[in-house]
């Protein structure tokens, strides 16, 4: 099996000569997939041949089809149904949203083909999921915690599993799933094909890859940590207390355009959402404290452009693929520098343009420098004056979403949603009151937000 020499990649090739099942090829054109992306052209032939893959690729590169199409091709070749409670291919993803996205993509690729594809994630009924698994499934997409719950209930066994996909593996490590992953891997026969995808390659990931993969082919399609070039980025220096009003000014300049606002904490996300709602914005939020139903409703309303602004924490929004997102606002800078790249990658998708604005408070200068160091590039200043260096906030916990995080200035910390605009608390920002924000540029160019002035470049 290992005797094949890796084939030279011809990026002009079509899906037809990658070795995929004809049944799947029929569906691709209808889904707008006509030409393989670089990761697909490189990975699909190797996976069809049974090789393990270490894929260094971010969401948006087409990696779901890169692992999904060849895996489905191999599973279709079985020609018989899975045994009760067994799973032929297990796909692990860090978040419910990503699991849903993978499930929906694979189901679309396999439309009309005799394969059973299921999804199990936290927040939904264990009994219903156990029932779904009783007949066995070809492909199961799961979040690690829920999978363990179901295994402990004896709702499924992994003894027949021949394929294991770890998607967004670095985020699974960030969330602290390492022990759960180790437990799950032990339950899957060693005689299997393993595909590991990660946007970054921290040391722990190297260890994980070394212990899970057998003689893998390494496929890399974008330099990890390199921000998408199509994204127009900027940093606006401001105070913690002025962030909410500043955000409102930015959002108001782009009526009807979808924006994702990143907040570091669940509590801060809720507070900010309420404040924006009060000011008349159409806004919803997703984070780990929301129920599964709430998360799905929020996302589908945002996807359908029924809601303009999505306030999210890192964990909930990683990997989301919503092509209409035109703006990403980093209301708080992320405490893990690499997350900046993941956050801004929610925009400029599917060939569109995108803008990303980071609001940098006085205690976030070291976070900003860490992000710039990770990217190997400076973020252009588009407003305010850089704060004095040296102010740092308390060291974050191991988890990317600390339960409590006060980062305001002065003796009484100001939390995100409590950040009051400089106007009367109940007053709406200028644009929401029907007036135009001062400094609005004519259509096509956007000028400085009204306050704090000193923007140096339109955004
Ligand atoms: P992913 O990186 O798997 O999350 O995919 C990102 C987006 O690219 C999804 O909306 C896919 O449907 C889309 N996509 C995947 N492969 C292709 C392709 N070959 N051509 C065009 N779009 C694609």
Automatic annotation (TrEMBL):
InterPro entries: DEAD/DEAH_box_helicase_dom, DEAD/DEAH_RhlB, DEAD_box_RNA_helicase, Helicase_ATP-bd, Helicase_C-like, P-loop_NTPase, RNA_helicase_DEAD_Q_motif. CDD domains: DEADc (cd00268), SF2_C_DEAD (cd18787). A motif (Q motif) lies at residues 13-41. SMART domains: DEXDc, HELICc. GO terms for cellular component: cytosol. Residues 382-459 are annotated as: Disordered. The keyword ATP-binding applies. Residues 13-41 form the DEAD-box RNA helicase Q domain. It holds the Pfam family Helicase_C. This is ATP-dependent RNA helicase RhlE. The lineage of its organism: Bacteria, Pseudomonadati, Pseudomonadota, Alphaproteobacteria, Rhodobacterales.
């Amino acid at each position: 099996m290992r005797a094949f020499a890796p084939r030279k990649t011809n990026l002009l090739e079509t899906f037809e000569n990658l070795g995929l099942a004809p049944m799947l090829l029929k569906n691709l054109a209808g889904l707008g997939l006509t030409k393989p992306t670089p990761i697909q052209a490189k990975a699909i032939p190797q996976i069809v041949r049974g090789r393990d893959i270490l894929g260094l690729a971010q969401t948006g590169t087409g990696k779901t089809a890169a692992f999904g199409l060849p895996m489905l091709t191999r599973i279709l070749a079985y020609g018989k149904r899975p045994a009760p409670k067994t799973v032929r291919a297990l796909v692990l993803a860090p978040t419910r949203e990503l699991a849903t996205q993978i499930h929906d993509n694979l189901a679309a690729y396999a439309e009309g083909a005799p394969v059973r594809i299921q999804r199990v994630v936290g927040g939904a009924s264990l009994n219903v999921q156990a029932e779904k698994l009783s007949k066995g499934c070809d492909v199961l997409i799961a979040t690690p915690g829920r999978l363990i719950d179901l295994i402990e209930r004896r709702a499924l066994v992994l003894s027949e599993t021949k394929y294991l996909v770890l998607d967004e593996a670095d985020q699974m490590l960030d969330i602290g799933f390492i022990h759960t992953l180790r437990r799950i891997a032990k339950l899957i026969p060693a005689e299997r094909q393993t595909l590991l995808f990660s946007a970054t390659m921290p040391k722990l990931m190297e260890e994980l890859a070394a212990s899970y993969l057998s003689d893998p082919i390494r496929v890399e399609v974008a330099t990890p940590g390199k921000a998408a070039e199509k994204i127009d980025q900027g940093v606006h220096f401001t105070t913690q207390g002025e962030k909410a009003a500043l955000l409102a000014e930015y959002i108001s300049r782009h009526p009807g355009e979808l924006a994702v606002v990143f907040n570091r904490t669940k509590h801060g996300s809720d507070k900010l959402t309420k404040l924006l709602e009060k000011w008349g914005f159409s806004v919803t939020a997703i984070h780990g404290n929301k129920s599964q139903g709430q998360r799905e409703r929020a996302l589908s309303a945002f996807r359908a452009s029924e809601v303009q602004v999505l306030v999210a924490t890192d964990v909930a929004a990683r990997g989301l693929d919503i092509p209409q997102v035109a703006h990403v606002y980093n209301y708080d800078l992320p405490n893990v520098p690499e997350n900046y790249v993941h956050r801004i990658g929610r925009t400029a998708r599917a060939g569109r343009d995108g803008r990303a604005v980071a609001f940098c408070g006085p205690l976030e200068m070291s976070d900003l420098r860490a992000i710039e160091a990770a990217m190997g590039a400076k973020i252009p200043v588009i407003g305010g004056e850089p704060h004095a260096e040296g102010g740092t906030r308390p060291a974050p916990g191991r988890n990317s979403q600390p339960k409590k995080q006060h980062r305001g200035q002065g003796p009484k910390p100001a939390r995100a949603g409590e950040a009051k605009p400089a106007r009367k608390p109940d007053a709406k920002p200028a644009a929401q009151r029907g007036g135009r924000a001062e400094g609005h540029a004519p259509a096509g160019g956007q000028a400085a937000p009204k306050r704090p002035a000193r923007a140096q470049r339109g955004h």
